[in-house]
Amino acid sequence: METKLNHVVLAAENDIKGAQSIHELMNIKAKYIGKKSEIMDLMKTLGSLSPEERPKVGKTINIAKQNIENLLENRIVKLKEMEYQKTLQDSKVDLSMPGYAIGYGSLHPLTIVWREIEDIFISMGFDIAEGYDIEDEFHNFDALNTPKDHPSRNLADTFYIKDDVLLRTQTSTVQIRTMENYKPPIKIISPGRCYRNDRPDASHSPAFHQVEALVVDENITFQDLRDTLNTFVKKMFGNHMKSRFRPHFFPFTEPSAEIDISCVNCGGKGCAICKNSGWLEMGGAGLVDPNVLGKLGIDTEKYSGFAFGLGIDRITILKYNIPGLRLLYENDIRFLKQFTMNN
Ligand code: DAH
The pTM is what? Predict the structure, then answer.
């Protein structure tokens, strides 16, 4: 029987060597070790052998079968390699040719500043909160103490999607959403996109970015607001920078103020950019109106808060000395490329 098996293995070896495709190999496999193969027939005779002979013969058959399997396996590897070489030749790829240099992309300056703002406030103990770009009138106006006849609710100012649904005009919406969901102490910022029905020019864009801040805790005073903003301005623009507050009105803060920073261009001496005032406007701020807190179920005897909203676009053009908002939205590659080094 052993001679017979040797013949089978030799014949299989011959066939396998000659096979030119995986498909051919599969047929050869069926022929030599498949269900109807000679080897399998021999296996079936094992039952009629004596118990002493059975393991010996079984082992011999198995070795023959294993040999054929190994030969098949090696040929598959060989065929695959041949196929690969042929594909390479056919596609005429010259692997020794130097590749094309792939240029690095760059982060958009707004993204760079957005992330920097987040880092600064996180280092001051703030959490990042998120709101929605599509909002309802309650969160964008009513809950922020804005009367029904306030001009900012006008179609000429606000993009309405339908009656009560609009594109938020300010990130102050996140103040409300945060106070609805969390109890004081609250200490969050929320950077995000806002929308207003403005014609694009050097200082306006229908879509722009704000970062909102809200702190609610016991004994929060105007001084906390000032310290927080001063620290932020110095970390963002450098230690020499100053900020100041000008009295103003916002429906949801009392008292309210507008925030200026010393002119990044002239350092406060006065130039064309700051219209000789030495100051540039950066956003609004104030102590949260107890009316707003109260309606959200916050105990105004115990808690007070401050809030501010800054323009991220504004901070970006001041930080990088960019002449106007348009460049931020035109996606001119020559402009964007200049920020590669900052990533
Ligand atoms: N939401 C205001 C705006 O878009 C900016 C603002 C003012 C935000 C005062 C505040 C704030 O949080 O306290 O003009």
Answer: 0.72
Structure confidence by residue, pLDDT tens digits, 183-204:
999 999 999 999 999 998 888 8
Rg value, the chain, Cα? 38
Domain membership of residue 101 (yes or no) is: no
Residue 192, ligand 1, Cβ within 6 A: no
- Domain range holding 248? 109-342
Is any ligand 1 atom within 6 A of the Cβ of residue 307? yes
Q: Are residues 329 and 182 in the same domain?
A: yes
241 and 161 in a single domain? The answer is: yes
The token duo for 107 is 């982060």
* Residues 297 and 158 occupy one common structural domain: yes
Per the structure block, which two tokens stand in for 145?
Answer: 């103490």
Q: Is residue 100 part of a domain?
A: no
Does the CB atom of residue 286 touch ligand 1 within 6 A?
yes
Residue 240's alpha-carbon distances to 107, 235, 269, in angstroms, are 27, 10, 13
